[in-house]
Amino acid sequence: MIAERPKHIVIDENVTVAELSQAMGIPVNELIKKLMHLGVMATINQEIDADTAMVLAAEWDISVDVTKSFTAEELLAEDAEDIEEDMIIRPPVVTVMGHVDHGKTSLLDSIRHTDVIASEAGGITQHIGAYQVEVQGKKITFLDTPGHEAFTAMRARGAKVTDIAILVVAADDGVMPQTIEAINHAKAAEVPIIVAINKIDKPDATPDRVKQELTEHGLVVEEWGGETIAVPVSAKTGQNLDQLLEMVLLVAEVQDLKANPNRTAHGTVIEAKLDKGRGPVATVLVARGTLNVGDAITAGTSSGKVRAMIDDRGRRVKKAGPSMPVEVLGLSDVPHAGDTFAVVDDEKLFKQVIAERMAKRREEDHRRTSKVSLDDLFKQIQEGQVKDLNLIVKADVQGSVEAIRGALEKLSTDEVRVKCVHDGVGAIKETDVMLAAASNAIIIGFNVRPDTNTRKAAEAQQVDIRLYRVIYDAIEDVKAAMSGLLEPEQREVVLGRAEVRATFKVPKAGTIAGCYVLEGKIARNAEVRLIRDGIVIHEGKLDSLKRFKDDAKEVNEGYECGVGIEKFNDLRENDIIEAFIFEEVKRKIQ
Ligand SMILES: Nc1nc2c(ncn2[C@@H]2O[C@H](COP(=O)(O)OP(=O)(O)OP(=O)(O)O)[C@@H](O)[C@H]2O)c(=O)[nH]1
């Protein structure tokens, strides 16, 4: 049968060989043959891209028009731009951050109670994950889970909820490690910071010292010529809280936060749980539009019709506008904090979106998503995916932190800016991994190690952690990766970790550590490193590995063993011995 051969065809963006054959009126095997000549190995049901299809069709003098097919998700996101006239001011969304015990929770509690009008209006305070207060007739939304960890965990899921960060610093304690972390987390998210210098009711409060310390971290307060707003407050007595809230409104005004309330709602899940009586309950924050009871919504892979909505005072409400937190009842299952939710009018689209998300989640479970890693940095630079190379630098001493950060940032080129989003002294922690995941950063560790939980988090979040003992190596690696030369011929593989439970001196053999293998295994021929409080104290070879009196080749998780390290005796209780080997790694094909 000779098919009619058209002069012009219209194809979908991704077309299979079979579909193309049908459209062109050319037998499939001829197309496959021609594709092979063009260097493309394709089977009958394989999709080929539009460019290849065009080249192929041109061989038979057929011209091609390509139509783009949208996924349901794209159709959902693809909605009309808002016009300025429809936009109204929306309340700012505020997160409270700061060091442990500096008063984050106390501040959130007192702010909640400053809202006299609302308290008088009745309703029992409900903890739904966020609440609103009214100041000078304007509303402010506070997220109820304080801390930069929660903030960055949401960001790592792609949710950008917070407009302003309040950094709480206790006036009697000053800037502490987590204060610095919070500053860096807020900066990485480009969220403006307002400092609340707390506990000024205390006799030993020294607010000026706090201001001085803040300048060391790039926050210079206004009265000293800088741009940082700092308000001395007391969460305990309520002093100056009104002033703090006024500042929040001021910063919000500068940000010009607006949203169109007259459209279908779209926003973020900030908390979700399974309630015994009520089923899945999600607290959502509307970003734009208005959510109504009866709306069909999707949130992550769950969906449903909004059966009821409850506000932060436990009152049932029928509508929720921009920045208004509400509990939503009626979802099919419990979404994740950080999932986006959207109202979908069109039932068919609604079903498609859910199906696509389920498929995507399954796929993601199987396949790793493309986070930046040194191994494929060059490829990502070329593809234009990476413009800033974000790094987190952790080292054993401040001097090294500064040396590495300085040297790495100097590697910036016209194409790629090397930017250190966070640095610090001490072990690599889970919060570092979260920040790396949220900011697409690589973690560079110098003489420090991640603990087990951190390594697991890094694996789950696909964060690349690079550990070095020589500064030069770190710089060379990043430099090589930026120019596409990185050839990891050998990659370190950790075999396992053991904890020192006791030590004893053995004549001639030196100090022997009685250990318990926490995970993996310790092998006689492996290299080992000794870690104390997350810091690498020593690296070397094993001198002996024994199970009871016998020499052992390897000792597995859950067993005890005696370990001696070559030319090293400073073993102490609670030290961690990490065994590792070097493995040949083939270079990834780009
Ligand atoms: N004197 C005084 N004490 C305060 C003030 N604010 C908080 N505190 C006290 O400081 C302690 C810690 O306050 P929290 O609000 O629990 O601090 P936090 O930052 O939320 O602490 P974590 O949740 O553990 O990180 C509590 O004993 C509070 O009573 C204040 O303004 N003045």
Automatic annotation (TrEMBL):
What InterPro entries does its record include? EF-G-like_DII (IPR053905), IF2_II (IPR044145), IF2_N (IPR006847), P-loop_NTPase (IPR027417), Small_GTP-bd (IPR005225), T_Tr_GTP-bd_dom (IPR000795), TF_IF2_bacterial-like (IPR000178), TIF_IF2 (IPR015760)
UniProt domain Tr-type G: residue ranges: 89-258
Q: Which GO terms describe its cellular component?
A: cytosol
Question: Superkingdom of this entry's organism?
Answer: Bacteria
Which stretches of sequence are listed as region G-domain? 92-240
Task: Report any Pfam family annotated for this entry.
Answer: IF-2
- Write one Gene Ontology MF term: GTPase activity
The record's subcellular locations are: Cytoplasm
Q: Record-annotated residues binding GTP? A: 98-105, 144-148, 198-201
- Provide the alphabetized UniProt keywords: Cytoplasm, GTP-binding, Initiation factor, Nucleotide-binding, Protein biosynthesis
Alphabetized NCBIfam families for the sequence: IF-2 (TIGR00487), small_GTP (TIGR00231)
Give the record's family classification.
Belongs to the TRAFAC class translation factor GTPase superfamily. Classic translation factor GTPase family. IF-2 subfamily.
Q: Which PANTHER family match?
A: TR-TYPE G DOMAIN-CONTAINING PROTEIN, TRANSLATION INITIATION FACTOR IF-2-RELATED
Described function: One of the essential components for the initiation of protein synthesis. Protects formylmethionyl-tRNA from spontaneous hydrolysis and promotes its binding to the 30S ribosomal subunits. Also involved in the hydrolysis of GTP during the formation of the 70S ribosomal complex.
Q: What is this protein called?
A: Translation initiation factor IF-2
From which source organism is this entry? Heliorestis convoluta
